[in-house]
Write a structure and sequence with these properties.
This protein is of the alpha/beta class and 354 residues long. The chain has helices spanning 18-31, 47-62, 70-82, 110-127, 144-159, 174-181, 185-188, 199-212, 219-229, 233-246, 254-270, 274-277, 282-293, 301-308, 312-324, 343-350, and strands at 8-11, 35-40, 132-137, 164-170, 190-193, 299-300, 328-329, 335-338. A hairpin with a 5-residue loop joins β7 (328-329) and β8 (335-338). α9 packs across α10 (233-246) and α13 (282-293) packs across α14. The termini are far apart.
């Protein structure tokens, strides 16, 4: 209906369920007949490069009659003009069947052109009595200049009361990135923190699926799982699975959970943790190991430097590269924390000596 609604951004550590929530929201929006533009923002890809093919596909879906309406046709022309940004973003590749409209989204300035493009997409959606929802995961990987253009484009569409919005998810550093990109971002978006489950919800997450299978679990076993997982949804899944597999019969016991902890950690070390560890340089590994020696965190940058026998200024590039890779974030000025829960314990296991 074109009425104002703030785009929602889910933020939190790895393994808290942001992507699952985002997928559920996407499915429900699609179920309401909205047109979804779903992308994941990987490292080392530009926003235009990943957005243009997804927008083209969405516009073609919006034009259900296979005969371009005026609004959809103009949006596709805007997309053709926008593709001229290939000069700046060499990963922008898309087959376009429409000639660009001169002066529409073709200035070569990302902020102006993306705003033009999103507005024409919104006008096409309005003409079709639909809405377009950008669904973007891992939004923290979008460079700030491109993030600023996206924020500006959504703001323009909102001002024109067009049916375009965004659902996104990212790591905690996303809040600071968006604030730096555009000062009004905090007013334009609804930021929703996603974290570990509280104790009653975490217990239910384990207990209820077991009871649905007409089996049971002892309270001591539940307490042991909560201690190991700290309520993080992904880890609850892993400990629940392994506890079920380790138990020969009901009820699942604390002894079963103890056995499950060994197999769960072995699996996490070989996959969830390992894939992140393998992307690190030797200097980055040493930095994270020094952090781990101080505990789960957050830690002051000065304390980490002291643990490494170095200076904050000398180690700043390593810290910045770890933040860029999504391994660390800064919850407050001068503080540093892991984005992956339980990663401090993993670093101690994989690098026993600092």
């Amino acid at each position: 209906m074109g009425r104002a609604a703030r785009p929602s951004i889910l933020y939190g550590l790895r393994g808290v369920g942001k992507t699952v929530l985002l997928s559920t929201m996407r499915d429900r929006a699609e179920g309401e007949g909205m047109t979804i533009v779903a992308i994941e923002a990987p490292e080392n890809r530009s926003l235009p490069g990943i957005l243009v093919p997804a927008l083209r596909a969405a516009l073609l879906r919006l034009d259900r009659l296979k005969q371009a309406s005026a609004g959809v046709k103009r949006a596709l022309q805007a997309l053709a003009g926008f593709a001229k940004l290939k000069v700046k973003y060499d990963d922008l590749e898309v087959a376009l069947d429409f000639e660009p409209e001169p002066g529409l989204a073709d200035s070569g300035d990302l902020e102006a052109d993306l705003a033009d493009l999103i507005v024409t997409v919104g006008e096409a959606a309005k003409e079709r009595k639909s809405a377009v929802v950008l669904v973007i995961d891992e939004l923290q990987y979008v460079p700030e200049e491109q993030l600023a253009a996206l924020i500006s484009a959504l703001h323009r569409a909102s001002q024109k009361q067009l049916p375009v919005t965004m659902l996104a998810a990212g790591l905690p550093q996303l809040l600071g990135q968006m604030g730096r990109a555009k000062s009004y971002a905090e007013r334009l978006f609804e930021f929703v923190a996603v974290g570990p489950l509280d104790a009653p919800a975490a217990r239910d997450a384990i207990r209820l699926p077991i009871e649905r299978e007409e089996e049971s679990i002892e309270d001591a076993a539940l307490i042991a799982i909560l201690e190991q997982t700290q309520g993080y949804p992904y880890f609850l899944q892993e400990w629940g699975k392994h506890s079920w597999d380790c138990a020969d019969a009901s009820p699942i016991t604390a002894a079963d959970v103890a056995a499950a902890t060994e197999s769960a950690l072995a699996e996490l070390d070989a996959s969830f943790f390992r894939v992140r560890f393998d992307r690190l340089t030797p200097a980055e590994k040493r930095y994270l190991r020094a952090m781990a020696s101080l505990g789960p965190g957050p830690h002051r940058s000065g304390d980490i430097a002291q643990a490494m026998g170095g200076k904050v200024t000398t180690l700043a590039p390593t810290r910045n590269s770890l933040i860029a890779k999504g391994m660390l974030y800064s919850p407050a000025h001068g503080d540093t924390a892991f984005t992956v829960p339980l990663f401090d314990a993993y670093m101690k296991r994989v690098m026993p000596a600092a």
